[in-house]
Amino acid sequence: MNEKEREQVALFRYGLIAPLFNGQVDSKEYLKGLEGKVHSIPYYGEKKIAQKTMKEWLLNYRRNGFEALKPKKRIDRGNSRRLSPDDQDQILEIRKKTPHMPVSVFYEQLIERGEIQKTQISYSTIIRLLKKHNLIGKQMLAIPERKRFAHDKVNVLWQADLSHGPYVPINGKKTKTFLIAYIDDCSRLVPYAQFFSSEKFDGLRVVTKEALIRRGKPTILYADNGKIYRSETLQYACAQLGITLAHTQPYDPRAKGKVERLFKTIQTRFYPLLQTDPVHSLEELNERFWNWLERDYHRRAHASLDNKTPLEVFESQLKDITFLEDLSILETIFLKREQRKVKPDGTISIDKKLYEVPSCFIGQSIDVRFDENGIYVFEENKEVAKAIPVSMKDNAHVKRIRSPFALTQSADVKGEQDHV
Prior knowledge:
By secondary structure, the chain is an alpha+beta fold. The chain has 3 domains: 3-132, no CATH class; 157-329, 2-Layer Sandwich (Nucleotidyltransferase, domain 5), CATH 3.30.420.10; 335-420, no CATH class. The N and C termini lie far apart (56 Å). It has 14 helices and 13 strands. The strands form 3 sheets. It has a 6-stranded antiparallel sheet with strand order 8-11-12-13-10-9, with no helix packed on it. Helix 1 (3-21) crosses helix 3 (51-64).
């Protein structure tokens, strides 16, 4: 199991215990409701989870954070052994991707992939394992759908969404914009929102970081099934911060009605201002939007808030808001994460571009984290080096150290020539 797979397992475990950790549910009823259910677990496949196991995960997370939810690294890699529980789980996970493949063919593929050795694991062992788990010609079970949460206290629930914005001039060309926003479910206050020229995760990262800095930490982030809200980066960040990431069903506007209502308000009260006085850049659009948000929207009485303003309701509960003590954590938890094997020339490839890392990593599989500002090498969750773009022109003039083997070969050849 590589580091990415360990993180995916940890994210799944956090998803189960997050409602317990954040006090969203009655622990006894919640655990009883999960008892007997089959879960689709990354790497391990379909399994039932005991209440005792979930309680242990919760205890470990409270004591040592997200890292404690990762499966322990194996220390017997490379040694001969019988089919261990981890090996069984891996084989079952592979099988569920091809449930109708003849077992004889499946067995041969396991050998070809290096999952098992024919001299150690027999065909009968594999077929007994598959029969035990009803994986001979059986369909995979469906993943249970998520259910909606609803809360009425400040910073318990933030709804998130993306909306299409107006066209603005960017580099002399009319470009479509996208508004990414959070809204507090209780006060209707907008923790942060911003227009961007694309729908990529980079925008959500900016909005989430700013919202956390300005308005504190929510218990739950509630979003739809859009790609950026399903990203592993967001899942990992929420797990590190102790935030529950919940999702509604696709195309279900009623489930996130408050943020939908916010967008409608923006369309009817803010966009008309742009028609009479157009903006000339993306920066100007955001400046005017933020001014409108603070001076108009946040200070206008809402009928649903007993004619109080969003700012009044939010500030009335400031004593209950949890602000981040160490803002520096936001610089690393939102980095994209990949595993890369360093080539013999000390390079790795990210987004089809070559980068150099220190030579001490040659031949190793490394944990790479990156954003638009840089690419970094991490070990044990700490940054240890920075990757730099490869410059073919500069490398052509770098003085190389000749290999000692090359010197030996040259000497041998010269010796043979002298002998002749």
